[in-house]
Amino acid sequence: MEDMALASELDRLQAMARELGAQVDNNDAPAAARELCGALAASVDRVVRLAGSNGNAVPGKNNGQPRNSSRKAATAAKTRRQVRVASVQDTAPLDDGLSWRKYGQKDILGAPYPRAYFRCTHRHTRGCQATKQVQRAAGDPLLFDVVYHGDHTCSQADAPLRLISPEQQPPASGQEQGSPAATQEEMHMQLWAAEPVTPPMAMDGCCPPTSSWYQLPGSYGYAAGAGLGTDMDFEAQLDEFLNPTKFFQSEIQTL
DNA sequence: ACCATTTGACCTAT
DNA sequence: ATAGGTCAAATGGT
After folding, report:
1. Separation between Cα atoms, residue A51 and residue A172, nearest integer Å
2. Of A29, A106, A163, A206, which is least packed with CB atoms within 10 Å of its CB?
């Protein structure tokens, strides 16, 4: 349907705008370029706003209406985190430094790339229920949408704060593991890394020590961005998109 | 031999 | 009926 195409295009636009923004940020580009980039971002913003508010329910976007309004969704409340990772390198597998085991892959309707399913390696040995899904963003093979759900109960916290020293340990993002306050909540976040040299890494954390997010090394540029095909809140996306200085932005919703 | 990945089948929700 | 998610046998690498 055309809504799908619209959403896809918007996602592409946002992705490209962010990519551009990162480029502009990383290399001290001329002021003109920055300005242009800002204008572009604003334009994309307006388009997204129009699309989202016109009653045009953008597929895959949660326009306020709880898609899973049934009690089933309530009972199945799980933590869920979305991360968008941009790899400027290429299609190298996302490596967040944590032990995941791939257990499936599916072609997703309307998506050019299949979705891969991973679970924690220690699922059986430690009963860790954490899983993640990785899918290439439509239109931009360098963008990966990574969705984590479930709490890591395994103490893979052996994996230290990898963000601090990327070359030693891949970065890991914090999660609310062991944080009871967050267990009933859904956390969406986009994380965007753009670094020409570093290998693509999804900064997830298998078993983060706290619910806070780690500081990111300068070599990574993070920007909030479009949650493509998932129930991202549009306004939140915009806020994040319009605040590139916020390296991180997370929102919490209940399913 | 062990472990991870691949991939078609199967299950479940819509 | 269809799509998304998971299982598990087959396969390959170390």
Report:
1. 34
2. A106
- Which tokens belong to A222? 């993070």
Q: Return residues with beta carbons within 7 A of strand B.
A: A 68, 70, 72-73, 99-106, 116, 121
List residues bridging with A233 in a β-sheet.
A62
- Tokens matching residue A68: 């899973």
What's the pTM? 0.49
Three-state secondary structure string covering A100-145? EEEEEEECCCCCCCCEEEEEEHHHCCCCCCCEEEEEEECCEEEEEE
Label residues A25-42 b or e (16+ Cβ within 10 Å = b).
Answer: bbeeeeeeeeeebeeebe
Spanning CA of A216 to C1' of C2, the rounded length in angstroms is: 42
Query: What are the structure tokens assigned to A119, written together?
Result: 């679970």
CB A146 within 8 A of CB A133: yes
Query: Contact A136/A115 with Cβ under 8 angstroms?
Result: no
Block residue for tokens 């965007």: A192
pLDDT for the residue numbered A11: 57
Q: A108 beta carbon < 7 A from strand C?
A: yes
Q: Per residue in A17-41, pLDDT tens?
A: 555 555 544 445 555 454 454 555 5
